[in-house]
Specification:
InterPro entries: YjbR (IPR007351), YjbR-like_sf (IPR038056), YjbR/MT2646/Rv2570-like (IPR058532). Keywords: DNA-binding. The protein has one domain: Aspartate Aminotransferase, domain 1, CATH 3.90.1150. 33% of the residues lie in helices and 29% in strands. The protein has helices at residues 3-11, 52-61, 88-105; strands spanning 16-22, 25-30, 33-39, 43-47, 66-68, 77-81. Strands 1-2-3-4-6-5 form a 6-stranded antiparallel beta sheet.
Length: 113
């Protein structure tokens, strides 16, 4: 999977939109919240669980291709390398789960229909 394909997958979600809050770092948002950090397209940062313990399952399964995200890793965010050992369908499922987790934190009036 390449970054452009993953970005298209992200933007196909209801209410999703692309932003570049830091020069050269593309993110996908729903409402005003990020659900996927796409950066330069070599990896994706997603919320892999409600806490570090749950998110660490990814690190155990894919030690070469998954790592805790800098600064926000303690909140269950991981960086998953594209094109490595993690199957594309698992990356897509992780993005979908991240989207759902972030939508659930939005006020009801701001959630996509």
């Amino acid at each position: 999977m390449i970054g452009d394909e993953l970005l298209r997958h992200c933007l196909a979600k209801p209410g999703a939109w692309q932003d570049e809050p830091w020069e050269g770092d593309v993110v996908a948002k729903v409402g005003k919240k990020i659900f996927a950090f796409l950066g330069t397209g070599e990896a994706v940062g997603v919320k892999c669980g409600p806490n570090r313990d749950v998110a660490d399952e990814w690190l155990d399964r894919y030690p070469e291709d998954a790592s805790a995200s800098a600064y926000i890793g303690r909140h269950g965010w991981n960086t998953l390398r594209l094109g490595g050992a993690i199957p594309d369908d698992e990356i897509l499922e992780a993005v979908d789960a991240s989207y759902e987790a972030i939508v659930a934190t939005l006020p009801r009036k701001d959630r996509p229909a």
